[in-house]
Amino acid sequence: MKRAVAVAASTAIASGLVLVAAGPSTAATTGSARAASGVLWDDCFDHRVSYSVGAAAGAEDWTLDLDVIAPDGRSAGGDFLMSGVDAASGASSVFFCGGVSRPGTYKIRGTITAYDADYNATTYAIPTSSFTMRQPRTTSALAAKPKKTRVGKVVRLTGTSKVERPRGYYALTTTRVRLQQKVKGTWRNVKAAEYTNYNGRTAFRVKAKKKGTMSFRLRTPSSSTETGSVSKVVKVRVRG
Question: What is the signed CA dihedral for 20, 25, 31, 35, rounded to 10 degrees?
Fold first, then answer.
């Protein structure tokens, strides 16, 4: 059996818990609901939530009301389970969409209502649990050629930006990145931002103006779908 209950979420999208286990059970006074932390990938997906309801002596039936709370305190989904229809333990899922759902800490709250033979109800709160959803990470790398040069010569710098995906890191395309140079202890942007190509790469040319050491790094900015990153520092030594 599958069942979803749509609830208005802070993400402004329909969200819910979709039941994937079913079967008859008895009433309960103990229970739990948990989810592992995860990543807000760039598409929409269901994130698994496991639940369990324990049996209680003298109870004939039970219901379990679950609610997932988003980082902003609003409901991000919910489900309503009951004995005779749903299993006492199983798996549900919270619906997320990368770039729309909020990263941060989510809480799972729930209440169990147990009924005796005369249908007298007793309500119990299950322990609140939490899990974290984060944005995919990016990586930035920078290479310089040559690493030793003379005043007036041009240094070629190549940047590579990648983004985390479910199966690893892949080229981050058509993204504006910045080449930065350290000047008097402060990182400053060099020239205009450049867009990464289909390989996630960018190319820069900088003329060496004076003797000393030039320090560069590549900065990949954060966005609504992934975090930002900076590369390791690359140093170029300039002689007169």
Answer: -10
